[in-house]
Design goal:
Distance between the termini: 29 Å
Number of domains: 1
Structural class: alpha/beta
CATH topology: Rossmann fold
Strand order of the largest sheet: 3-2-1-4-5-7-6
CATH superfamily: Vaccinia Virus protein VP39
Oligomer: single chain
Order of helices and strands: HHHHEHEHEEHEHHEE
Length: 203
């Protein structure tokens, strides 16, 4: 939706307020964060991009999985979040983690640089999905995977706030991603109620 990222682009963004909002057990993806991270199937030495890394909710898990020989790109549109992430990885001695500033149209990763691209509650923030998906496709190595965790959008079932906030439902997401050249591999059942977990293949 137009303007959906306006708050995140504000140089006066209150990052601590978003930590309290995002990192709480009442948020489903936070409560299920370990299961979500494990379902990505990362292994030692792999390279993963967390697109829309935000407060760094999944960075620790990914850094642990790929170990020092791997690479974690914490990709972020917000300058405030990017600066916070940078301080965070330095304080935790995560030398395998690198913060990348992206744009609204491009994840800003080198061609063929990652094995997995991960987004959690971020896809619906893609204002230019066609361009962004093309950049994700380029960044992935052949045989790489693209994981999308995002909100269900089911009229009559989904909360009203989400219906107004999320621009499209799961089936439209699948259409957009497959139109970009990806192949849907599976939907992973993790006991999620408000969200879904989709895994796509980059041929």
């Amino acid at each position: 939706m137009p303007g959906i990222n306006t708050n995140f682009l504000d140089p006066n963004l209150d990052a601590d307020a978003f930590v309290k909002r995002f990192e709480t057990e009442s948020r489903e993806v936070f409560a299920k964060r370990s299961a979500i991270a494990r379902a990505c199937g990362l292994r030692e030495g792999m390279a993963v991009a967390d697109v829309g890394a935000g407060t760094g909710l999944f960075v620790d898990y990914f850094a642990l999985d790929v170990k020092k020989s791997g690479r974690v790109y914490a990709v972020e549109l917000s300058e405030v979040f990017a600066e916070r992430l940078q301080k965070r990885i330095v304080s935790r001695n995560q030398s395998q983690v690198e913060v990348v500033r992206c744009t609204e149209r491009d994840v800003s990763l080198p061609e063929g640089s990652v094995d997995t691209v991960f987004t959690c509650d971020t896809y619906h923030h893609f204002e230019y999905p066609k361009a962004t998906l093309a950049s994700i496709y380029r960044a992935l190595r052949p045989g790489g995977t693209f994981v999308i965790v995002d909100f269900e959008r089911i009229p009559g079932k989904t909360r009203e706030w989400l219906l107004n906030h999320v621009r499209c439902g799961k089936q439209q997401v699948i259409r957009e991603v497959t139109d970009a050249g990806f192949v849907l591999m599976e939907e992973v059942a993790l006991g999620l109620e408000e969200n879904y977990f989709l895994r796509f293949l980059r041929l």
